[in-house]
Amino acid sequence: MGAPISNRIRELRFHHNEMSQAELGQRIGVTRQTIAAIESEKYSPSLEAAFRIAHVFGVQLDDVFQWNPFVSMR
User: Fold this and answer.
1) Does domain 5-64 have CATH number 1.10.260.40?
2) b vs e for 11-23, b when ≥16 Cβ sit within 10 Å of the residue's Cβ?
3) Which of 32, 16, 17 is closest to 64 using CA atoms?
4) Higher pLDDT, 68 or 41
5) What is the pTM of this model?
6) Domain boundaries, the chain
7) Could you write out the DSSP letters of every residue in 2-54?
8) 31 and 65 Cβ atoms separated by less than 8 Å
């Protein structure tokens, strides 16, 4: 069973000149480890961090994050 919030961060980083997790973290004000945890769906970002990530890639929030209400939280 997957996480209730999935994301396309890895794909978006790849399509933006293979941006590193560290660079993305620096651009939104969090650590590389935080980006890694969000990207691997082990941690859900704050709403502000989610908007900042979308802004870095120039896309809408739902182009980065998808919520599946049918996946139960553990």
Assistant:
1) yes
2) ebbeeeeebebeb
3) 16
4) 41
5) 0.88
6) 5-64
7) --SEEE-HHHHHHHTTT--HHHHHHHHTS-HHHHHHHHTTSSPPPHHHHHHHH
8) no
